[in-house]
TrEMBL record:
EC assignment: 4.1.99.13
Pfam families cross-referenced by the UniProt entry: DNA_photolyase, FAD_binding_7
Protein's name according to its UniProt entry: (6-4)DNA photolyase
Family according to the record: Belongs to the DNA photolyase class-1 family.
Length: 629
């Protein structure tokens, strides 16, 4: 029989309880918040709050999902929660699921709990619940793949907690409201949750810690003798420390970040063999980790779902599989990946697990370093696998230290560019109807899988913005945010700033060709044939440019361009040259005004662009351009 953990910490009175609030960090391994919650407590309440804003179906969204997430991300989350619940059960606990505004749920829990540790996850309906009017299955904020992934991750976390003698508590509701309710109804002496720099969680933390005038939880916690523990474990470094080292400003280049960061110094959390049991949950309505069907989703929304299952168990399995090929790990170079590889992707596909915290980035980093110690040679940052983790750290740091990082307006590091407002072009790009098979196949993979190779992401982002359509990067960012299962606020915004040449990368003449770039990796077009089956019988000579195929060839392939598959929405040669010219003029404006570009300045330049297009000859002279082939 295991001794009570209170014996290990004489400073924690016997009989005191802890509430472990899961947001990200849906794992048992290397989870310092869970470790601290268990230390010296007779009970732990592992809590997840279902936030209606994230999970509930949005009938008006353009794809199945909630307002904030597509159905794939919601599914992934549910799978992750189920896995977490399973893990907690192995530890002798379970996941407690409540629904509501997280901070309100938390306060109610803290008031009602007293002698136990409660691992808690709050399901936000605004994130998870179905949006029937979305352009793809999911909620308003997330596609179905991300929602599914989250559910799988929760289930896996619950499983891990059960192995430790606990379980995951899942509640549903606006997170801050649910958490406040929990604080009011449960008597808890320790509140533990992983620190997060995402603005969504920063806003929740303000409510929980007293930054909101309505919910002054920090004062409540202090008066009630509740200890708040919020460690940095979602990232390898603490972004605030890096910014402080740089004089209060975030480093704006990868190399300057590396110099400031140096070698990380951290100790992984101890491996838990058990956790204190869950105590009395009082009047709180505890849920099981819900299924997609219980959230209002139906599988008929699409014919193919992401092959990536959520959860810590799957994350660790994938990690072991990747690390088993030491030569591949040692020789990994990001630019050399194949964006057309879909049967066996050319990367680890661990990004969704890092996003939800099913896999500890610190543990991943340590595992990679262990491999490097046992090989003669290995690649180095920025192209190595360790380099990819450090790119993640870089974007987290810049995003945390840059006001309005997710916007063009008010963002000091973002070029001010008068993007167009052509919703028809945006809709064609989103719906995979641009007429360019390479671009459309990538967008279909995004919609069905919620994931695609980073070079594929670069291709479609460049095409939408500075390469061809000249549509605002924020609009593309929003679609990625909804549909990607690995959508991460800092990284998604950072990559769109980069690919649109709005920040970080400024060589706007270098354009990804929607024809030759994909052909270089996949001359037969197998990737296109898989994701665009209407083109499966098109000869390889025409698979990237089907509009150039003779009518007889189109007829034989059972795909008439303009009827069965759209004609190109633009001429790439013409559009890319126009975009290059516009980018040059926008850059000149930013340089002349030293970045202090007003909305009126942008309107004037936009009018000039429109006038230039009106004056243009029907068939402009073809100009030379630099293509990324």
């Amino acid at each position: 029989m295991k001794p009570p953990l209170s014996l290990l910490n004489p400073n924690m009175p016997s009989g005191s309880g802890s509430l472990m609030w899961f947001r990200k960090g849906l794992r048992v391994h290397d989870n310092p918040a869970l470790e601290y919650a268990s230390r010296g407590s007779s009970c732990v309440y592992p809590l997840f709050v279902i936030d209606p804003h994230y999970m509930e179906l949005d009938p008006d969204a353009y794809s199945p999902g909630s307002t904030r997430a597509g159905i794939n991300r919601i599914r992934f989350l549910l799978e992750s929660l189920a896995d977490l619940d399973s893990s907690l059960k192995k530890l002798g606990s379970r996941l407690l699921v409540l629904k509501g505004e997280p901070s309100e749920v938390l306060i109610r829990c803290l008031n009602e709990l007293w002698t136990c540790v409660y691992p808690l996850f709050v399901i936000d309906p605004h994130y998870m619940e179905l949006d029937p009017d979305a352009y793809s299955p999911g909620s308003t904020r997330a596609g179905i793949n991300r929602i599914r992934f989250l559910l799988e991750s929760l289930a896996d976390l619950d499983s891990s907690l059960k192995k430790l003698g606990s379980r995951l508590l899942v509640l549903k509701g606006e997170p801050s409201e649910v958490l406040i309710r929990c604080l009011n109804e449960w008597d808890v002496r320790k509140l533990c949750f992983e620190y997060d720099t995402d603005p969504y969680y920063q806003a929740l933390d303000d409510k929980v810690k007293g930054g909101c005038s309505i919910h002054v939880l920090q004062n409540y916690a202090s008066a009630a003798g509740i200890e708040v523990f919020s460690p940095v474990s979602h990232t390898i470094f603490d972004p605030a420390d890096i910014i402080e080292k740089n004089g209060g400003r975030p480093p704006l280049s990868y190399q300057s970040f590396l110099k400031l960061a140096g070698e990380p110094s951290f100790s992984l959390s101890v491996e838990l063999s058990w956790t204190p049991p869950v105590g009395d949950v009082g009047r709180c309505e505890i849920l099981q980790v819900p299924t997609l069907k219980e959230l209002g989703y139906v599988e008929k929304h699409q014919d193919e779902f992401t092959p990536f299952r959520g959860g810590e168990s799957e994350a660790l399995r994938r990690l072991r599989e990747s690390l088993s090929d030491k030569e591949w790990v040692a020789n990994f170079e990001k630019p050399k990946g194949d964006p057309s590889a879909y049967i066996k992707p050319a990367t680890t596909v661990l990004s969704p697990y890092l996003k939800f915290g099913c896999l500890s980035s610190r543990y991943f980093y340590q595992c990679l370093k262990d491999v490097y110690k046992n090989v003669k040679r290995h690649t180095s940052p920025p192209v190595s696998l360790v380099g990819q983790l450090l790119w993640r750290e870089f974007f987290y740091t810049v995003a945390f230290g840059t006001p309005n990082f997710d916007k063009m307006k008010g963002n000091k590091i973002c070029k001010q560019i008068p993007w167009n407002d052509d919703d028809k072009l945006l809709a064609a790009w989103r719906a995979a109807r641009t007429g360019y098979p390479w671009i459309d196949a990538i967008m279909v993979q995004l919609r069905k899988w919620g994931w695609m190779h980073h070079l594929a992401r670069h291709s479609v982002a460049c095409f939408l913005t500075r390469g061809d359509l000249f549509v605002h990067w924020e609009k593309g960012r929003d679609i990625f945010e909804r549909l990607l299962i690995d959508s991460d606020w800092a990284i998604n915004n950072g990559n769109w700033l980069w690919q649109s040449c709005s920040s970080f990368f400024y060589q706007y003449n270098r354009i990804y060709s929607p024809i030759s770039f994909g052909r270089k990796y996949d001359p037969n077009g197998n990737y296109i044939r898989h994701f665009l089956p209407i083109l499966k019988d098109m000869p390889k000579e025409y698979i990237y440019e089907p509009w150039t195929a003779p009518l007889s060839v189109q007829t034989k392939a059972k795909c008439i361009i303009g009827r069965d598959y759209p004609k190109p929405v633009i001429s790439h040669d013409t559009a890319s040259n126009e975009c290059r010219k516009k980018m040059g003029e926008a850059y000149a404006l930013n340089q002349r005004l030293k970045g202090l570009v007003s909305e009126e300045d942008l309107r004037k330049l936009r009018r000039k662009f429109d006038e230039d297009e009106d004056k243009q000859e029907p068939k402009p002279r073809r100009q030379r351009q630099k293509l990324i082939k």
